[in-house]
Amino acid sequence: MVTLTEKVKLSGFNNLTKIVSFNLYDFNIAMTEEQRQSYIAYIDEKYCAEKIRDIAREICRIIDANILNESIQNYDPVGASTMTLMSDIAGGKWEDTSANTTASVKMHLDKSHITTHTYPDASDPEGICTFRVDIDVATCGEIIPLRALEYMFNAFECDVAYIDYVVRGYTRLENGKKIYNDHYFNSIQEFIPKDVLDRYVYRQDINMAHDNTWQTKLMIKELGPENYLLDPKDVNHPDIDAKMRLLRQEMREVFHLN
Known about the structure:
It is a single chain. By secondary structure, the chain is an alpha+beta fold. The protein has one domain: S-adenosylmethionine decarboxylase. The protein has helices at 33-46, 49-62, 149-155, 194-197, 240-256, and strands at 17-29, 65-74, 80-88, 92-95, 104-107, 112-121, 128-140, 160-168, 171-172, 178-179, 200-208, 213-220. Strands 2-3-6-7-1-8-12-11 form an eight-stranded antiparallel beta sheet. Strands 4-5 form a two-stranded antiparallel sheet. The chain has a two-stranded antiparallel sheet with strand order 9-10. A hairpin with a 5-residue loop joins strand 9 (171-172) and strand 10.
């Protein structure tokens, strides 16, 4: 880990920035005030800053990045934030594959970071508890941060997920040519395994490749109450059907941003 006085050596000119924003929501039902407090304590322990930091470390491993510095913060009563600064492990060399040119530029993954913020909410008077986490992975260089999506779905329980991906800036080659994107694909969903996509009934996909902008939104299929109850014995509670309708309505509102 570098110190505050050290400088990271950059090579070549590259301000091509790729940013994936992963925003997920997980829902639960608290039937009593005691369960509401239990939910807050559970989230506070499972997704504390130290554990969120470990998730960021694994993302760095997956995308072949080297950690330069880390910052973590827990909040009272709930919530956590982390920030990870990173660089390329070994650097790289981008080759222009267009016709009639051999131009290239040496490049390092520089000025790159991962930020995470958690937002637990147990304030709903009907007992619908929500946990949201935002993870932004911003990289410069050859690395494709979308490679970490499968791990993110495995690291968190996702009832509703928003994934935004944008590419901005450019890489200037030695012959002066500017490159505005160095990898091509049709949809973010290409980076999500089929067995993961099959969990979701609503799948919205926006692809504006000409603007280097993509978005995918997902909402989980309807599942039984046993997947959302803090106490399994509440599956036979007389209010459970009404609570499940409220929970599903909450998911739809989040999915459609109503």
